[in-house]
Write a structure and sequence with these properties.
Elements lengths: L4 H13 L3 E3 L2 H15 L15 E4 L16 E4 L10 E4 L5 H6 L6 E5 L4 E5 L3 E6 L2 H5 L5
Antiparallel strand pairs: 1-4, 2-7, 3-4, 3-5, 5-6, 6-7
């Protein structure tokens, strides 16, 4: 039996909170992950996930559960460590703005986030949030106080 703890946790939490998600089948997940890898060539797909080059970084502290509020209201595609039990699995959060709420109510996990067209890639690890592509501007531009 192939237990996927991150995926199962997100399914349970999304059900509890009423946040709409889907899980892509393995073939669709592999195709999506390959497209992201081919586009961004992340330096670390296992361990402390990292995109590497051509990224901006924001601190995890203070942003971990709020960064997603700056994303467009569109489906967000989350995937995990590619050597872990959740490899080759993509969880689609129907509204990207809800990622923070979903993760705030889940146990800690590192993950990547993109959208259907792979316009951007975000890596959330235990230390920082790395951002590449079209999400750089909205996530690094601080609202004026």
């Amino acid at each position: 039996m192939n237990i996927k703890p991150n995926t199962q946790e997100l399914i349970q939490v999304s059900t509890d909170l009423g946040i709409a998600i889907d899980v892509l089948d393995e073939n669709e997940s592999k195709q999506f992950i390959k497209r992201v890898i081919d586009t961004y060539n992340p330096t670390k797909m296992t361990g402390h996930l990292s995109i590497g080059e051509e990224t901006e970084t924001i601190p995890l502290e203070g942003n971990e559960f709020s960064y997603s509020t700056y994303l467009k209201r569109e489906p967000a595609y989350l995937f995990f460590d590619q050597e872990g039990r959740d490899r080759n699995t993509v969880v689609v959060v129907k509204d990207a703005k809800m990622i923070g709420k979903l993760m705030e109510n889940s146990y800690g996990m590192e993950y990547f986030v993109s959208n259907e067209t792979t316009d951007f890639l975000i890596a959330v690890n235990w230390y920082v949030i790395e951002i590449a592509g079209s999400a750089i501007e909205p996530l690094t531009k601080k609202p004026k106080s």
